[in-house]
Write a structure and sequence with these properties.
The protein has 79 residues and is an all-alpha fold. It has four helices and no strands. The longest helix has 13 residues.
């Protein structure tokens, strides 16, 4: 067996809804998000939107969240 290859998502990938969040991010954060499965990336963007007022550096937040999502973080993840 083998894992199926992931093609590029249709329609340019992410929700147009998330465009607002993308505009706040630097290129590194966007690339990190795009490297994730779309569901995880969407969850991170939704979380970013929910915490909009509280997050001073959205790019740093995304970098940390993507690192956690790929197993780079330590400790249990609370919902």
């Amino acid at each position: 067996g083998g894992a199926p290859g992931g093609g590029a998502p249709e329609g340019g990938g992410f929700d147009a809804d998330a465009a607002d969040e993308y505009r706040q991010l630097d290129a590194k954060a966007v690339a990190a998000l795009q490297a994730l499965p779309q569901l995880q990336a969407t969850q991170i963007l939704l979380e970013l939107r929910r915490k909009k007022g509280a997050i001073r550096n959205p790019s740093a937040y995304v970098m940390r969240a993507t690192s956690n999502a790929t197993g780079g973080g330590e400790g249990p993840r609370g919902a």
